[in-house]
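Researcher: Let's try something more involved. This one mixes different molecule types, so please make sure each is placed in the same coordinate frame as the others.
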Amino acid sequence: MTSVLEYIAANRRRFVDDLCAYVRFPSVSAQPRHAADLGRCAEWIAARCRGIGLATEVHATDGNPILVARTPVVRGAPTFLVYGHYDVQPPEPFELWKSPPFEPRIAGKNLFARGASDNKGQHLAHLNAVEAYVRTGTRLPCNLVFLIEGEEEIGSGALYKFLPKHARQLRCDAVVISDNGLPSLKHPALTYALRGIAAIEVRLDGPSRDLHSGLFGGTVDNPAMALCQLLGRMRDAKGRVTVPGFYDDVKPLSRYERKQFAGLPLDAASYRRLTGAPRLFGEAGYTHEEQRTARPTFEINGLTSGYQGEGSKTIVPSWASAKITIRLVPDQQPRKVIEAVKKHLAKLCPPTVRLTIRNGHGGEPYIVSPEGPLAQASLRALEAGFGHRALLMREGGSIPIVSAFRKHLGADTLLLGLSLPDDNPHSPNEKFNLDAYAAGTRTSAHLWPLLAAASV
Amino acid sequence: MTSVLEYIAANRRRFVDDLCAYVRFPSVSAQPRHAADLGRCAEWIAARCRGIGLATEVHATDGNPILVARTPVVRGAPTFLVYGHYDVQPPEPFELWKSPPFEPRIAGKNLFARGASDNKGQHLAHLNAVEAYVRTGTRLPCNLVFLIEGEEEIGSGALYKFLPKHARQLRCDAVVISDNGLPSLKHPALTYALRGIAAIEVRLDGPSRDLHSGLFGGTVDNPAMALCQLLGRMRDAKGRVTVPGFYDDVKPLSRYERKQFAGLPLDAASYRRLTGAPRLFGEAGYTHEEQRTARPTFEINGLTSGYQGEGSKTIVPSWASAKITIRLVPDQQPRKVIEAVKKHLAKLCPPTVRLTIRNGHGGEPYIVSPEGPLAQASLRALEAGFGHRALLMREGGSIPIVSAFRKHLGADTLLLGLSLPDDNPHSPNEKFNLDAYAAGTRTSAHLWPLLAAASV
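Model: All components are placed in one shared frame. Result:
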């Protein structure tokens, strides 16, 4: 391991040069005019893999190519899959960038470019670690498969078709993804759980058309008012969702988990600054970090009813609707929660309006045992790589591909995020911290023996 | 009076021909291409007034001309002003008309044409009655002023400037308007009260931008949810507005008024059919007719928040807003009610969102003493004209010009509607019932001696 780490330290500048070359490709998957750039970008990363001796295939798809690269086979050893994506978000609006998005600029500890942290820098760190093993002749204690796609920012359409077809070849003991964040360089963290989601649309129909509020107002229920009263009852003053059974399947947080969260550096003032809200508000009895990652929510994403133009229109609107997403935590199931919500809405809905509920998409919450060997091995790797105590954290959003990996490959995913909170992914002036890049590379070097030992 | 009524009966067909000529003008005030048609239409009705010996002036305005026509002066007698408008609503959509909107078609008892009931037929009935007096040499017991404008359907802009400037010349003892409805030919009715209105817009601001509902949902209040909870508390389960002091100035209905309403023919089944609502809903303790005309309401006219497009967008919206109109009844004052509502909203609004309330337009409710001599004289005229017992009714909407007449001319307005519930004003296939036209003409003939006697 010493020679591997020495190699990483010695090649620090060259690894940065490689990342600079990688981010020069404007591999914007959302913009068809960049299709050729995506192809060239895939070939660049394939060449990089081949250059360090990986068996590399670039699979053509209906969309952008998918790269699969394997380290030399180590018989009897476990296999880990590293997932990443070479496509990037659109760079617009250009005028907000301090330097052109596809011309890497280094300022202090940061490398500015679209894709620097999301996701080119983060998966390149893992490839750098493999290079260090290979070039120093250090035997990898496992088999590694790099799976790098080009449509993550537009829904991974090609990969969702690819996975079931290549499930056998991609079978592995665990998946490692670095495509998310850590609170600070002094707080490396393993994300061991994600929230799931259940989307519904609620609509109340009243009169057969918008009615004159003078001529008829007072004799019919107002669907907008009925919607307000109905949805208003879904959350109580303590921030709890009132749907019976809603919390039944929520796995309580252990003391160990809550202690881990307490070590994370984000305080109320940071949240207030990040959100711009006049005051924070969440479920009583939980910290902000717990509220946003480990507790379910009932959010109205949109409201529509009646007249929305300038001035006023004196109507009783014919209907009112709301878009709603429910964030789920382990072990809530989208279907079961949606049924409970529907039942409750139907029960509370007055007979003066007609209730229609349309199901939208659902995604299961995700969790890897926080005290299990894979998570603990990851923490030790992060500590070794960053030189600071690593913590466990959860994330409030969803990463749908993680469930697909569990389903098709039967493997848990370990999320070792290398992106700092001010990295601006998806925004102008995206950057990647070069210390995080180096620490991530060291983490990856430490990770494989630790994971291999934990997988036995 | 006998000769007047005989003249009206004898000229029934000619009065219909006159109305047919009048509705041929496409006097659509909302459509600039019809400006010349409006001028020609004003000249036609002016010629009609001059033809029966009225002193007639057509006043040019910034917009469409205003006609003022006076019967020969009767010294010492009271003066009544008849208001009407020669402009009409746009006829679109043409394809829904069974015959062209400006080619009058008689089918059974109905004359179909845009403007037939709103308002050409209704004020022509009054002019026909004057013709009957003049041609039969019957002395009118009062002075009559016809004030006929051409912008009622677009807000009466010119008239609002004209009124204060000509207040002296238009001074009168009462105003008579036939520009509204009656429940049926067997239920002639005087509308003695109108609801007023107060409009506000309520907005709640939360986070400084739409937030990712996964990353932040649970730590900040959701402005759409906060709006639902806030507005939902404005009306209770019995349909009462919960704002403290809201009902303080509401004049209770007298037994006499409630008895009058009870005689009106509209029942629950009719309201359900008219509104298409699954079930009727209103303030407990009042009939539907009372709810829609004599009780104040708090109506949400529109809701806006977050994402309203196809599918879902997983955000905590930055803000949510609602358009609200409050219908007022005598003696509620728009300003006072708005202050009470604002105070209540501010009191209930949680500190997790910022509340902004924007005042919109306001209009006072209107009432003429139902047991006073003018109202009672009107009822007797309606009974004589229609041959059925006349009732008192209120209307739920507002007719703003009525308050302007009270303000500038110091006169109460008597609303003797001649339009039946199926007349389709503002809709395709507008029509006017020719029996209502004849009965309205007879009512007008009876009205002047009765009103003159009541005004002494």
